Amino acid sequence: MSGTTLTLGEMALAQKVVFEEYDLNNGLHVILHHDASAPVVITSVMYHVGAKDENPDRTGFAHFFEHLLFEGTENIKRGEWFKIVTSNGGTNNANTTDDRTYYYEIFPSNNLELGLWMESERMLHPIINQIGVDTQNEVVKEEKRTSYDNRPYGNILAAVKENMFKNHPYRWTTIGSMEHIDAATLEEFQEFNKKFYLPNNAVLVVAGDFEEKQTKEWIQKYFGSIQKGVIAPKKTYSEEPITQTIKATYEDPNIQIPMLIASYRTPSMKSRDARVLDLISSYLSDGKSSRLYKKVVDDKKMALQIGAVGFSQEDYGMYIVYGLPMADFSIDDILVEIDEEITKIQTDLISEKDYQKLQNKFDNNFVNSNATIEGIANNLASYYLLYKDINLINTEIELYHSITREEIREVARKYLNPNQRLLLDYIPAKSHN
To answer: 135-180 pLDDT, tens per residue?
Structure first.
């Protein structure tokens, strides 16, 4: 008897995410995804505001709001938000990037109305007052200390960004500057809210186990009356191409071992080239089976660690390769090895076997990213808001499948040259005593 087994790729295509989308009169985009496999439902709202929408003298605002908007609303008393969620069997969270801010609650399905009401409260009339600002100021400062300033290698991204971008607001980090937050007036926070937290600058996703007719009635009831606002057009910033190596140094008082960082600027995550670079990044530097790890850490034992992070965003991205040299080796020794591997990709086609392994890995990631209700809700919101193509939730994997080995070589030649990068010496701070 012959059975057929689906490859991961076919599985990914078979696993279609079905959704419905429509707009309210105030411009709020609504996406519904029904899945009754578990008795839970997620309500999430993504706003098209991130660190890149901030005034350069007021960085950190978008992330500050991610905290501030849990403070309370006209109908949810200060300090009650989390209590309401947990006492009703739910969990909630939020996160901010340079491009967007995302809030969500996950409740047992019988509490969907509560989730919708809470998110509409946050959008309609949050209370932004001095006590809330002062409280969250302390919370954010503590986050900056523990996650960035006092953590070994905690300011890599800050150091890379300020050297990679001259005009674009990507030059600062989402946590921003505490001096800017301290200097801001209450009115400035209130203005930021009025400017960006608008129904027509957001997408609402409901995913999970719900009854459709009732859900649409609730969405209309809680969100329908919120006034549409005027969205300031997004500013566009262009960066001159990097044509000669940028050299920079950053001193970190929390480290003993210098780190090599090579960073290349890459195009918008919406572009085909960005997806080719995802494959290249994975091949070169994703995990212990990657080319660089096997060679530099396992075989030659030149580095304690080597890796890379692809930082894909709405306007530009970065491909950041980093390495920690072993005692007998220098940063330069490691750079030679990295460049050798990049040159190989630019010269020869990667093997069929490696290509297939890459495709399998991406199929796997794709299946996993849609394996949970949270993953699906996040993907639906992102593809709609940032990519302007919601159906990528089902078709993006086909784009990866269509990338050829020749294209991988071509894109490596186009973006990953020594004169197109930042070389950052991330070193222990010299003691000044």
So the answer is: 999 999 999 999 999 999 999 999 999 999 999 999 999 999 999 9
- Percent of the chain exceeding pLDDT 90 equals 92
Distance CA 134, CA 132 (A): 5
Nearest 5°: CA angle at 308, between 303 and 309? Answer: 150
Torsion sign, CA atoms 69, 74, 75, 80? positive
Q: Fill in the DSSP letter of residue 330.
A: -
Q: How big is the chain, counted in residues?
A: 433
* Single-letter amino acid code for the residue at 407: E
The torsion angles phi and psi of 13, rounded to 5 degrees, stand at -75, -30
Beta strands in 175-315 (DSSP E): 202-208, 246-252, 259-267, 303-311
> CB neighbours of 420 closer than 8 A, spacing ≥ 6?
241, 242, 243, 264, 265
Q: Which residue has the tokens 């030149």?
A: 302
Q: Is residue 411 helix, strand or coil?
A: helix
Give me 14's structure tokens.
């078979």
d(CA 292, CA 399): 26
Give the domains, in start order, of the chain with CATH numbers: 18-223 (3.30.830.10), 246-428 (3.30.830.10)
CB contact burial 149-165 (16+ within 10 A = b; e otherwise):
beeebbbbbbbbbbbbb
Q: Closest Cα to residue 415, out of 292, 301, 298, 271? A: 271
Comparing C-alpha atoms, which of 382, 366, 160, 360 is closest to residue 260? 160
Task: Find how far residue 421's CA is from the centre of its chain.
Answer: 22
Edge-to-edge strand order for the sheet containing 421-428? 246-252, 421-428, 259-267, 316-325, 303-311
Question: What count of other Cβ atoms lies within 10 Å of the Cβ of residue 212?
Answer: 11
Q: Which two tokens stand for residue 200?
A: 């027509």
Report the chain's terminal Cα–Cα distance, integer Å. Answer: 79
Beta strands in 172-275 (DSSP E): 202-208, 246-252, 259-267
Neighbours of 16 (CB within 10 A): 12
**Each residue's pLDDT tens digit, 320-361:** 999 999 999 999 999 999 999 999 999 999 999 999 999 999
Helix (H, G, I), strand (E, B) or coil at 80: coil
**Three-class secondary structure of residue 73 per DSSP:** strand
